[in-house]
Amino acid sequence: MDANTLYPIYLLSQNGGELRHEFTPTGIAYDLRIDGKLVAPAPSAETALVKGAASSQHRRGILIRPDTTHAPAGKYTDRLTLVIVGD
Fold first, then answer.
1. pLDDT tens track, the chain, 87 positions
2. b or e along 32-62 (b: 16 or more beta carbons within 10 Å of the residue's beta carbon)?
3. Cα 21 to Cα 66: distance, rounded to the nearest angstrom
C-alpha cells in the first residue's frame, strides 16, 4: 500500500486467534506478530494493529504455541481479515 498520510490497520479473526478443527470444537492457539509486535485478535471484533502507519510494508509472523502431538488429525483454520483505512 502506498500512502501519503498515516493510516490505521485493523485485524478481524473468525476464531479469535485460534485454529479450529473442522469437525470438533478443538482449537490450537497461535501467536500472531505484525512488525514484531504481538497481536491478540478478539473473536468477531476488530483489533487495532497499527495506528498511524507510514510504511507500505509490514512483516507478519505466526507461531503455533502448544504441543500439537495429541490434537486430533484434520484441518484447522482461522480466517484473518486485514482492514486498512484511508482518510
1. 667 777 888 888 899 889 999 999 999 999 999 888 898 887 767 787 777 666 677 888 999 988 898 899 999 999 988 888 876
2. bebeeeebebeeeeebebbeebeeeeeeeee
3. 15
